Amino acid sequence: MSTLHHRIIAAAAVLIPMAVILFYAGSCSVSSLAENYPQTLTVDVFDSLANYQGIQSGWFAGLVLDRFNIRLNIIASNVAGGGDTMYQTRAAAGELGDLIICDGSNHNLQELVTAGLVMDMSSLLQDKAIMQYGLAIRALNDPISDTAIYAVPSEISSRNCLQYSENEEPACGPYLERRFFCAPKQHAIGYEMLPDASGSGDTDSSDETAARTNTDTGTIRHDAPMALTQTALTDYTGRFVGYIQTCNRRMTVETLSELEHGLSHVSGEIAEIKLFLTDLYLQIRETMNRNYASAEIPFMGNAAVIEYINKTNYLCEIIRFLSEQSEMIMNTIGSPSRNTILDDVLFYIDHNFQHNIKLDTIAPLFGYNSAYLGKIFSKTVGENFNSYIDHKRIELSKQLLLENRLKVYEIADQVGYKNVDYFHKKFRKYVGESPAEFRKGHGLETESGKYPPPHT
Protein backbone atom coordinates (compact mmCIF):
# COMPACT_ATOMS: atom_id res chain seq x y z
CA MET A 1 0.00 0.00 0.00
CA SER A 2 1.14 3.53 -0.67
CA THR A 3 2.00 6.14 1.94
CA LEU A 4 -1.13 7.99 0.82
CA HIS A 5 -3.29 5.00 1.76
CA HIS A 6 -1.66 4.79 5.18
CA ARG A 7 -2.30 8.50 5.69
CA ILE A 8 -5.98 8.31 4.75
CA ILE A 9 -6.56 5.25 6.92
CA ALA A 10 -4.91 7.00 9.84
CA ALA A 11 -7.21 9.98 9.37
CA ALA A 12 -10.21 7.65 9.07
CA ALA A 13 -9.68 6.64 12.68
CA VAL A 14 -11.10 9.99 13.77
CA LEU A 15 -14.36 9.31 11.93
CA ILE A 16 -15.32 6.40 14.21
CA PRO A 17 -16.43 6.53 17.87
CA MET A 18 -14.77 9.04 20.19
CA ALA A 19 -13.38 6.34 22.49
CA VAL A 20 -11.30 5.11 19.54
CA ILE A 21 -10.39 8.64 18.49
CA LEU A 22 -8.80 9.45 21.81
CA PHE A 23 -7.05 6.11 22.17
CA TYR A 24 -5.55 6.25 18.70
CA ALA A 25 -4.72 9.95 18.54
CA GLY A 26 -3.21 9.85 22.02
CA SER A 27 -0.44 7.58 20.77
CA CYS A 28 0.61 9.97 18.01
CA SER A 29 2.89 12.97 18.07
CA VAL A 30 1.42 16.04 16.39
CA SER A 31 4.82 17.43 15.50
CA SER A 32 6.03 14.18 13.95
CA LEU A 33 2.88 13.81 11.85
CA ALA A 34 3.20 17.36 10.59
CA GLU A 35 6.77 16.64 9.50
CA ASN A 36 5.68 13.45 7.69
CA TYR A 37 2.94 15.23 5.71
CA PRO A 38 4.21 18.61 4.45
CA GLN A 39 1.63 18.78 1.62
CA THR A 40 -2.03 19.44 2.44
CA LEU A 41 -4.37 16.75 1.11
CA THR A 42 -8.12 17.08 0.51
CA VAL A 43 -10.10 13.89 1.14
CA ASP A 44 -13.68 13.44 -0.14
CA VAL A 45 -15.93 11.91 2.53
CA PHE A 46 -19.33 10.61 1.45
CA ASP A 47 -21.52 10.72 4.58
CA SER A 48 -25.14 9.64 4.21
CA LEU A 49 -25.98 11.04 7.68
CA ALA A 50 -24.17 14.39 7.50
CA ASN A 51 -26.10 17.66 7.75
CA TYR A 52 -23.22 19.79 6.40
CA GLN A 53 -21.59 19.80 2.97
CA GLY A 54 -18.28 21.19 1.77
CA ILE A 55 -14.89 21.66 3.43
CA GLN A 56 -15.43 20.91 7.09
CA SER A 57 -14.58 23.60 9.65
CA GLY A 58 -14.46 23.81 13.43
CA TRP A 59 -12.42 22.01 16.08
CA PHE A 60 -12.87 18.55 14.54
CA ALA A 61 -11.62 19.67 11.16
CA GLY A 62 -8.75 21.43 12.92
CA LEU A 63 -7.76 18.20 14.69
CA VAL A 64 -7.59 16.27 11.41
CA LEU A 65 -5.69 19.09 9.72
CA ASP A 66 -3.17 19.48 12.54
CA ARG A 67 -2.46 15.78 12.90
CA PHE A 68 -2.62 14.61 9.29
CA ASN A 69 -2.51 17.81 7.21
CA ILE A 70 -5.79 16.68 5.64
CA ARG A 71 -8.88 18.71 4.81
CA LEU A 72 -12.21 16.86 4.82
CA ASN A 73 -14.58 17.62 1.94
CA ILE A 74 -17.99 16.34 3.09
CA ILE A 75 -20.37 15.04 0.44
CA ALA A 76 -23.81 14.93 2.10
CA SER A 77 -26.77 13.48 0.23
CA ASN A 78 -29.15 14.89 2.86
CA VAL A 79 -27.96 18.43 2.08
CA ALA A 80 -27.37 18.18 -1.65
CA GLY A 81 -30.66 16.41 -2.25
CA GLY A 82 -31.34 13.08 -3.83
CA GLY A 83 -30.90 10.96 -0.71
CA ASP A 84 -30.51 7.28 -1.58
CA THR A 85 -30.76 8.10 -5.28
CA MET A 86 -27.63 10.24 -5.01
CA TYR A 87 -25.84 7.35 -3.30
CA GLN A 88 -26.83 4.90 -6.02
CA THR A 89 -25.87 7.33 -8.79
CA ARG A 90 -22.44 8.14 -7.38
CA ALA A 91 -21.80 4.47 -6.54
CA ALA A 92 -22.60 3.46 -10.12
CA ALA A 93 -20.22 6.13 -11.38
CA GLY A 94 -17.50 5.10 -8.90
CA GLU A 95 -17.51 8.57 -7.33
CA LEU A 96 -18.52 8.00 -3.71
CA GLY A 97 -15.26 9.44 -2.39
CA ASP A 98 -12.11 8.44 -0.56
CA LEU A 99 -13.92 7.64 2.71
CA ILE A 100 -17.49 6.35 2.84
CA ILE A 101 -19.87 6.55 5.81
CA CYS A 102 -23.14 4.77 5.06
CA ASP A 103 -25.52 2.04 6.16
CA GLY A 104 -23.70 -1.29 5.94
CA SER A 105 -26.91 -3.35 5.84
CA ASN A 106 -29.13 -4.35 2.90
CA HIS A 107 -26.11 -5.72 1.03
CA ASN A 108 -24.65 -2.21 0.66
CA LEU A 109 -21.19 -3.29 1.79
CA GLN A 110 -21.22 -6.35 -0.48
CA GLU A 111 -22.14 -4.13 -3.43
CA LEU A 112 -19.35 -1.67 -2.65
CA VAL A 113 -16.80 -4.50 -2.45
CA THR A 114 -18.04 -6.11 -5.66
CA ALA A 115 -17.85 -2.76 -7.45
CA GLY A 116 -14.30 -2.23 -6.21
CA LEU A 117 -15.22 1.01 -4.43
CA VAL A 118 -13.69 0.01 -1.09
CA MET A 119 -10.27 -1.42 -0.33
CA ASP A 120 -9.02 -4.11 2.04
CA MET A 121 -7.59 -2.29 5.07
CA SER A 122 -6.40 -5.37 6.98
CA SER A 123 -2.67 -4.77 6.39
CA LEU A 124 -2.99 -1.11 7.35
CA LEU A 125 -4.93 -1.79 10.55
CA GLN A 126 -2.70 -4.61 11.76
CA ASP A 127 -1.37 -3.95 15.30
CA LYS A 128 -3.31 -0.66 15.48
CA ALA A 129 -5.30 0.33 18.58
CA ILE A 130 -8.58 0.06 16.68
CA MET A 131 -8.16 -3.73 16.54
CA GLN A 132 -9.19 -3.93 20.18
CA TYR A 133 -12.64 -3.89 18.56
CA GLY A 134 -11.72 -6.86 16.38
CA LEU A 135 -14.84 -8.86 17.24
CA ALA A 136 -17.11 -6.08 16.01
CA ILE A 137 -15.01 -5.48 12.90
CA ARG A 138 -14.99 -9.16 11.98
CA ALA A 139 -18.74 -9.50 12.57
CA LEU A 140 -19.32 -6.83 9.91
CA ASN A 141 -16.80 -8.16 7.39
CA ASP A 142 -17.09 -11.96 7.81
CA PRO A 143 -20.17 -12.30 5.54
CA ILE A 144 -17.96 -10.97 2.73
CA SER A 145 -14.47 -12.23 3.57
CA ASP A 146 -12.82 -14.30 6.32
CA THR A 147 -9.65 -12.20 6.26
CA ALA A 148 -10.21 -8.85 4.54
CA ILE A 149 -11.39 -5.72 6.35
CA TYR A 150 -13.43 -3.41 4.13
CA ALA A 151 -15.35 -1.48 6.78
CA VAL A 152 -15.40 -0.54 10.47
CA PRO A 153 -18.76 -0.45 12.30
CA SER A 154 -20.16 2.50 14.24
CA GLU A 155 -23.58 1.85 15.72
CA ILE A 156 -25.96 2.23 18.66
CA SER A 157 -25.76 -0.64 21.13
CA SER A 158 -28.83 -2.67 21.99
CA ARG A 159 -27.20 -3.96 25.18
CA ASN A 160 -28.31 -3.33 28.74
CA CYS A 161 -27.19 0.13 29.87
CA LEU A 162 -24.91 -1.42 32.52
CA GLN A 163 -23.36 -4.07 30.26
CA TYR A 164 -19.88 -3.09 29.10
CA SER A 165 -19.43 -4.02 25.45
CA GLU A 166 -16.56 -2.00 23.98
CA ASN A 167 -14.41 -5.07 23.23
CA GLU A 168 -17.18 -6.51 21.08
CA GLU A 169 -18.68 -3.45 19.45
CA PRO A 170 -17.32 0.10 19.20
CA ALA A 171 -20.68 1.56 20.10
CA CYS A 172 -22.38 4.13 22.26
CA GLY A 173 -25.19 2.81 24.45
CA PRO A 174 -28.77 3.97 25.02
CA TYR A 175 -28.22 7.57 26.11
CA LEU A 176 -31.44 8.14 28.03
CA GLU A 177 -30.90 5.08 30.25
CA ARG A 178 -27.19 5.52 30.90
CA ARG A 179 -27.58 9.16 31.91
CA PHE A 180 -29.53 8.01 34.99
CA PHE A 181 -26.17 7.32 36.67
CA CYS A 182 -24.61 10.71 35.86
CA ALA A 183 -23.07 12.82 38.60
CA PRO A 184 -24.58 16.25 39.44
CA LYS A 185 -24.37 18.66 36.46
CA GLN A 186 -23.25 15.81 34.20
CA HIS A 187 -25.61 15.01 31.34
CA ALA A 188 -23.95 12.14 29.52
CA ILE A 189 -21.83 9.18 30.53
CA GLY A 190 -19.71 6.71 28.58
CA TYR A 191 -19.30 2.99 29.16
CA GLU A 192 -15.83 3.49 30.63
CA MET A 193 -17.36 5.73 33.33
CA LEU A 194 -20.14 3.35 34.28
CA PRO A 195 -19.81 1.30 37.47
CA ASP A 196 -18.90 -2.37 37.04
CA ALA A 197 -22.07 -4.34 37.62
CA SER A 198 -20.43 -7.72 36.94
CA GLY A 199 -20.59 -8.61 40.61
CA SER A 200 -24.36 -8.27 40.77
CA GLY A 201 -26.91 -10.82 39.73
CA ASP A 202 -30.62 -10.68 39.05
CA THR A 203 -32.61 -8.39 41.30
CA ASP A 204 -34.55 -11.30 42.83
CA SER A 205 -31.57 -13.62 43.26
CA SER A 206 -31.60 -15.55 46.55
CA ASP A 207 -27.89 -16.33 46.06
CA GLU A 208 -27.05 -12.61 45.96
CA THR A 209 -29.14 -11.97 49.05
CA ALA A 210 -27.27 -14.74 50.82
CA ALA A 211 -23.95 -13.27 49.74
CA ARG A 212 -24.90 -9.95 51.37
CA THR A 213 -26.09 -11.59 54.60
CA ASN A 214 -23.76 -12.06 57.56
CA THR A 215 -24.11 -15.72 58.48
CA ASP A 216 -23.36 -15.02 62.14
CA THR A 217 -25.81 -12.18 62.77
CA GLY A 218 -28.28 -12.45 59.89
CA THR A 219 -27.73 -8.75 59.05
CA ILE A 220 -26.90 -7.25 55.66
CA ARG A 221 -23.22 -6.89 54.76
CA HIS A 222 -22.93 -3.40 53.26
CA ASP A 223 -19.62 -4.10 51.49
CA ALA A 224 -21.18 -6.79 49.28
CA PRO A 225 -23.01 -6.33 45.94
CA MET A 226 -26.50 -4.92 46.44
CA ALA A 227 -29.75 -6.64 45.45
CA LEU A 228 -33.18 -5.04 45.13
CA THR A 229 -34.75 -7.40 47.66
CA GLN A 230 -37.21 -7.01 50.53
CA THR A 231 -34.35 -7.78 52.91
CA ALA A 232 -32.32 -4.84 51.59
CA LEU A 233 -35.39 -2.59 51.69
CA THR A 234 -36.10 -3.47 55.32
CA ASP A 235 -32.46 -2.96 56.26
CA TYR A 236 -32.22 0.52 54.72
CA THR A 237 -35.60 1.55 56.14
CA GLY A 238 -34.52 0.61 59.65
CA ARG A 239 -31.19 2.39 59.39
CA PHE A 240 -32.62 5.61 57.99
CA VAL A 241 -35.42 5.69 60.59
CA GLY A 242 -32.88 5.21 63.36
CA TYR A 243 -30.52 7.94 62.13
CA ILE A 244 -33.36 10.39 61.49
CA GLN A 245 -34.93 9.88 64.93
CA THR A 246 -31.57 10.61 66.60
CA CYS A 247 -30.87 13.52 64.22
CA ASN A 248 -27.67 11.72 63.20
CA ARG A 249 -26.95 13.65 60.03
CA ARG A 250 -23.52 12.14 59.63
CA MET A 251 -24.79 8.58 59.35
CA THR A 252 -27.76 9.66 57.25
CA VAL A 253 -25.41 11.19 54.67
CA GLU A 254 -23.06 8.20 54.75
CA THR A 255 -25.95 5.78 54.27
CA LEU A 256 -27.32 7.81 51.37
CA SER A 257 -23.89 7.72 49.73
CA GLU A 258 -23.69 3.98 50.32
CA LEU A 259 -27.17 3.54 48.84
CA GLU A 260 -26.31 5.56 45.75
CA HIS A 261 -23.11 3.57 45.25
CA GLY A 262 -24.94 0.27 45.72
CA LEU A 263 -27.73 1.11 43.30
CA SER A 264 -25.16 2.17 40.70
CA HIS A 265 -23.79 -1.38 40.80
CA VAL A 266 -27.11 -3.19 40.52
CA SER A 267 -27.61 -5.17 37.32
CA GLY A 268 -31.25 -4.29 36.82
CA GLU A 269 -33.62 -2.02 34.97
CA ILE A 270 -33.93 1.67 35.86
CA ALA A 271 -37.63 1.18 36.61
CA GLU A 272 -36.75 -1.42 39.25
CA ILE A 273 -34.32 0.95 40.94
CA LYS A 274 -36.94 3.70 41.01
CA LEU A 275 -39.52 1.31 42.46
CA PHE A 276 -37.08 0.34 45.21
CA LEU A 277 -36.47 4.00 46.10
CA THR A 278 -40.21 4.74 46.08
CA ASP A 279 -40.87 1.84 48.44
CA LEU A 280 -38.04 3.01 50.69
CA TYR A 281 -39.52 6.51 51.03
CA LEU A 282 -43.02 5.18 51.68
CA GLN A 283 -41.83 2.78 54.37
CA ILE A 284 -39.81 5.52 56.12
CA ARG A 285 -42.85 7.78 55.98
CA GLU A 286 -45.13 5.10 57.41
CA THR A 287 -42.76 4.36 60.31
CA MET A 288 -42.15 8.00 61.19
CA ASN A 289 -45.87 8.84 61.06
CA ARG A 290 -46.54 5.94 63.38
CA ASN A 291 -43.80 6.94 65.83
CA TYR A 292 -44.56 10.70 65.72
CA ALA A 293 -48.30 10.82 65.13
CA SER A 294 -48.64 14.25 66.78
CA ALA A 295 -45.72 15.87 64.96
CA GLU A 296 -47.64 16.50 61.71
CA ILE A 297 -44.61 15.85 59.52
CA PRO A 298 -45.31 17.41 56.08
CA PHE A 299 -44.68 14.29 53.97
CA MET A 300 -45.57 14.10 50.29
CA GLY A 301 -48.54 11.96 49.32
CA ASN A 302 -48.22 8.58 47.59
CA ALA A 303 -49.15 9.86 44.14
CA ALA A 304 -46.79 12.85 44.35
CA VAL A 305 -43.83 10.70 45.45
CA ILE A 306 -44.43 8.09 42.76
CA GLU A 307 -44.77 10.75 40.06
CA TYR A 308 -41.64 12.65 41.19
CA ILE A 309 -39.36 9.61 41.31
CA ASN A 310 -40.65 8.18 38.04
CA LYS A 311 -40.12 11.48 36.20
CA THR A 312 -36.65 12.16 37.66
CA ASN A 313 -33.87 11.51 35.15
CA TYR A 314 -30.91 11.12 37.50
CA LEU A 315 -30.19 8.86 40.47
CA CYS A 316 -28.27 11.66 42.20
CA GLU A 317 -31.41 13.84 42.15
CA ILE A 318 -33.48 11.15 43.86
CA ILE A 319 -30.75 10.72 46.50
CA ARG A 320 -30.78 14.49 47.05
CA PHE A 321 -34.57 14.37 47.41
CA LEU A 322 -34.24 11.69 50.10
CA SER A 323 -31.60 13.82 51.84
CA GLU A 324 -33.85 16.88 51.83
CA GLN A 325 -36.77 14.85 53.14
CA SER A 326 -34.57 13.40 55.92
CA GLU A 327 -33.52 16.91 56.95
CA MET A 328 -37.13 18.06 56.89
CA ILE A 329 -38.14 15.24 59.26
CA MET A 330 -35.27 16.01 61.64
CA ASN A 331 -36.21 19.68 61.73
CA THR A 332 -39.81 18.75 62.48
CA ILE A 333 -39.19 16.27 65.31
CA GLY A 334 -36.03 17.78 66.82
CA SER A 335 -33.97 20.98 67.29
CA PRO A 336 -30.84 20.71 65.15
CA SER A 337 -28.02 23.17 65.81
CA ARG A 338 -25.90 24.88 63.21
CA ASN A 339 -22.70 23.77 64.93
CA THR A 340 -23.73 20.12 64.75
CA ILE A 341 -24.45 20.46 61.04
CA LEU A 342 -21.09 22.09 60.43
CA ASP A 343 -19.34 19.33 62.35
CA ASP A 344 -21.06 16.85 60.06
CA VAL A 345 -20.01 18.87 57.00
CA LEU A 346 -16.37 18.84 58.16
CA PHE A 347 -16.57 15.11 58.82
CA TYR A 348 -17.93 14.57 55.30
CA ILE A 349 -15.17 16.72 53.76
CA ASP A 350 -12.45 14.94 55.72
CA HIS A 351 -13.56 11.65 54.19
CA ASN A 352 -14.32 12.87 50.66
CA PHE A 353 -11.92 15.73 49.80
CA GLN A 354 -9.99 13.43 47.43
CA HIS A 355 -13.05 13.37 45.19
CA ASN A 356 -14.57 16.15 43.10
CA ILE A 357 -16.66 17.73 45.88
CA LYS A 358 -18.12 21.21 45.66
CA LEU A 359 -20.09 23.37 48.04
CA ASP A 360 -23.17 23.47 45.80
CA THR A 361 -23.33 19.65 45.73
CA ILE A 362 -22.64 19.19 49.47
CA ALA A 363 -25.07 21.84 50.74
CA PRO A 364 -28.27 20.02 49.66
CA LEU A 365 -27.13 16.90 51.52
CA PHE A 366 -27.43 18.87 54.74
CA GLY A 367 -30.59 20.77 53.84
CA TYR A 368 -29.01 24.15 53.05
CA ASN A 369 -28.39 26.21 49.95
CA SER A 370 -24.73 26.67 49.05
CA ALA A 371 -24.61 30.43 49.73
CA TYR A 372 -25.93 30.12 53.29
CA LEU A 373 -23.77 27.11 54.16
CA GLY A 374 -20.74 28.90 52.67
CA LYS A 375 -21.24 31.86 55.02
CA ILE A 376 -21.55 29.60 58.09
CA PHE A 377 -18.49 27.63 56.97
CA SER A 378 -16.25 30.67 56.45
CA LYS A 379 -17.35 32.33 59.69
CA THR A 380 -16.82 29.22 61.83
CA VAL A 381 -13.76 27.65 60.20
CA GLY A 382 -11.96 30.89 59.36
CA GLU A 383 -11.46 30.19 55.67
CA ASN A 384 -13.68 29.54 52.69
CA PHE A 385 -14.73 26.11 51.50
CA ASN A 386 -12.37 25.85 48.51
CA SER A 387 -9.36 26.97 50.57
CA TYR A 388 -10.15 24.35 53.21
CA ILE A 389 -10.33 21.64 50.53
CA ASP A 390 -7.00 22.77 49.08
CA HIS A 391 -5.33 22.64 52.52
CA LYS A 392 -6.60 19.10 53.13
CA ARG A 393 -5.37 17.96 49.72
CA ILE A 394 -1.96 19.63 50.02
CA GLU A 395 -1.37 18.19 53.51
CA LEU A 396 -2.11 14.69 52.23
CA SER A 397 0.09 15.24 49.17
CA LYS A 398 3.01 16.22 51.46
CA GLN A 399 2.61 12.95 53.33
CA LEU A 400 2.57 10.96 50.09
CA LEU A 401 5.60 12.84 48.77
CA LEU A 402 7.58 11.96 51.89
CA GLU A 403 6.61 8.31 51.55
CA ASN A 404 8.39 8.49 48.17
CA ARG A 405 6.37 5.66 46.62
CA LEU A 406 4.34 7.49 43.98
CA LYS A 407 5.18 9.84 41.14
CA VAL A 408 3.96 13.42 41.34
CA TYR A 409 1.17 12.96 38.79
CA GLU A 410 -0.04 9.88 40.69
CA ILE A 411 -0.12 11.85 43.94
CA ALA A 412 -1.98 14.71 42.24
CA ASP A 413 -4.68 12.32 41.08
CA GLN A 414 -4.88 10.56 44.44
CA VAL A 415 -5.46 13.75 46.43
CA GLY A 416 -8.11 15.09 44.05
CA TYR A 417 -6.29 17.13 41.37
CA LYS A 418 -6.89 15.57 37.96
CA ASN A 419 -4.63 18.14 36.27
CA VAL A 420 -1.00 17.80 37.35
CA ASP A 421 -0.15 21.39 36.33
CA TYR A 422 -2.97 22.70 38.50
CA PHE A 423 -1.64 20.59 41.37
CA HIS A 424 1.85 22.11 40.93
CA LYS A 425 0.32 25.58 41.02
CA LYS A 426 -1.64 24.88 44.20
CA PHE A 427 1.30 23.16 45.91
CA ARG A 428 3.64 26.06 45.24
CA LYS A 429 0.96 28.49 46.46
CA TYR A 430 0.55 26.82 49.84
CA VAL A 431 4.02 25.31 50.39
CA GLY A 432 6.22 27.86 48.63
CA GLU A 433 8.05 25.32 46.45
CA SER A 434 7.33 22.64 43.88
CA PRO A 435 6.63 19.01 44.85
CA ALA A 436 10.05 18.00 43.50
CA GLU A 437 11.78 20.71 45.52
CA PHE A 438 9.83 19.62 48.60
CA ARG A 439 11.07 16.05 48.19
CA LYS A 440 14.61 17.15 47.51
CA GLY A 441 14.57 19.39 50.58
CA HIS A 442 13.85 16.30 52.68
CA GLY A 443 16.73 14.35 51.17
CA LEU A 444 14.60 12.25 48.84
CA GLU A 445 15.20 11.48 45.19
CA THR A 446 12.71 12.79 42.63
CA GLU A 447 11.24 10.81 39.74
CA SER A 448 12.29 11.49 36.16
CA GLY A 449 9.01 13.00 34.96
CA LYS A 450 5.99 14.79 36.38
CA TYR A 451 3.58 13.76 33.62
CA PRO A 452 1.96 10.34 33.06
CA PRO A 453 3.47 8.25 30.25
CA PRO A 454 1.68 8.50 26.88
CA HIS A 455 -0.71 5.74 25.79
CA THR A 456 0.84 3.16 23.53
What does this structure look like?
- The protein is mainly α and 456 residues long.
- The chain has 23 helices and 6 strands.
- The chain has helices at 3-12, 18-25, 30-36, 59-68, 77-80, 84-93, 108-114, 122-125, 134-141, 175-178, 206-211, 230-245, 249-264, 270-291, 302-311, 315-333, 338-352, 359-362, 370-381, 385-403, 408-415, 420-431, 435-441, and strands at 41-47, 54-55, 70-75, 99-101, 155-156, 171-172.
- A 4-stranded mixed sheet has the order 2-3-1-4.
- Helix 12 crosses helix 14 (270-291) and helix 20 (385-403) runs antiparallel to helix 21.
- The model is unreliable at 7-32, 171-176 and 197-221 (pLDDT under 50).
List keywords for this structure.
single chain, 23 helices, mainly alpha, 52% helix, four-stranded mixed sheet, two-stranded parallel sheet, 6 strands, 456 residues, extended
Question: How are the SSEs placed, and which strands pair?
Answer:
Blueprint lengths: L2 H10 L5 H8 L4 H7 L4 E7 L6 E2 L3 H10 L1 E6 L1 H4 L3 H10 L5 E3 L6 H7 L7 H4 L8 H8 L13 E2 L14 E2 L2 H4 L27 H6 L18 H16 L3 H16 L5 H22 L10 H10 L3 H19 L4 H15 L6 H4 L7 H12 L3 H19 L4 H8 L4 H12 L3 H7 L15
Parallel strand pairs: 1-3, 1-4, 5-6
Antiparallel strand pairs: 2-3
Helix pairs in contact: 12-13, 12-14, 13-16, 13-17, 14-15, 20-21
